[in-house]
Amino acid sequence: MTASNVSLATAQRIDDFRRLGRMQAGSLIISVFGDAVLPRGGRLWLGSLIALLEPLGLNERLVRTSVFRLVKDEWLTTQAVGRRSDYLLTAAGRRRFEEAARQIYAAQAPAWDRRWRLVLVVGELDVRARERLRRALFWQGFGDLRAGCFIHPSADLRQVFDALTTDGMGDTLPALMPLLAANPHLGASANDSDLVRRAWNLDALAAGYQAFVQRYRPLWDEWRVPARRPRDPALAWQARLLLIHDYRRLLLRDPELPEVLLPADWPGQQARALCRDLYRCLLEPSERFLDGALRLASGEVPTATPLLQERFQPVDPLAVPV
């Protein structure tokens, strides 16, 4: 079997992406910075980014427009180097991706300490402020029990409040009360299951994970046997980017519930394993490609850090956030 015909699924996935009618270029650029640029110092020359994304159907004008919008939205910032400029994740942008990275690159779902994290609205907030708070907590995985009560099984409440402050919502903090509610049962109880049903609708998320597995399993079949892998490292990079981009978009809607609180045969577990295994297969050839493709405004090649090798490593099951 030749390299040309073992890359059919990978090439098909890339072609499908290129044919998308509406492309969220800004979201894809954030995936590039979080997955490839952050482990190499967190900065990149715009010309290098343009060349990196052109094979995926993003032209120079679209990339420039999207980058400028990300600067305006305070995801990215710029730093001049002579006549050129490097782009970097802002402190807020870095924090947002690092929070997501804890989910994206975890080898397994976290253990549960059987304590619920609650955020209660105990002060006066107008309708607009309440909606803004609801959306902010939704993106951090919180379920809404109504009546001003938001719930999560494992969120770090300190980081939650820090994130609200970073996102310009510090003035709402006096109206909020963080609480921990202990569960005396060794496992999940009927009350826990009822809370999950009330706070989250998992059906759409389950369908998304099933579609992810269906989309990327053929790529796993191409890359899992070293002797049969496609030989083009550019394909490895493009497949890696789309893999992480699609998985990250699912995780943005995932409350990261511990396994004991999830329905039986939850497809998110299969999606996590598939993403982990395929990513590890794609990592070495894609990094070889990035060594030749990434440049700083100075012309230097940004070098990789050990952060890459830490991804998808088993986590300490006792390291549960408070």
TrEMBL record:
It comes from Tepidicella xavieri. One of its GO terms (biological process) is DNA-templated transcription. Residues 111-167 form the Transcriptional repressor PaaX-like central Cas2-like domain. Gene3D superfamilies: 1.20.58.1460, 3.30.70.2650, Winged helix-like DNA-binding domain superfamily/Winged helix DNA-binding domain (1.10.10.10). This is PaaX family transcriptional regulator. The lineage of its organism: Bacteria, Pseudomonadati, Pseudomonadota, Betaproteobacteria, Burkholderiales. Residues 200-291 form the Transcriptional repressor PaaX-like C-terminal domain. Residues 25-92 form the Transcriptional repressor PaaX-like N-terminal domain. InterPro entries: PaaX-like_central (IPR048846), PaaX-like_N (IPR012906), PaaX_C (IPR013225), PaaX_trns_reg (IPR011965), WH-like_DNA-bd_sf (IPR036388).
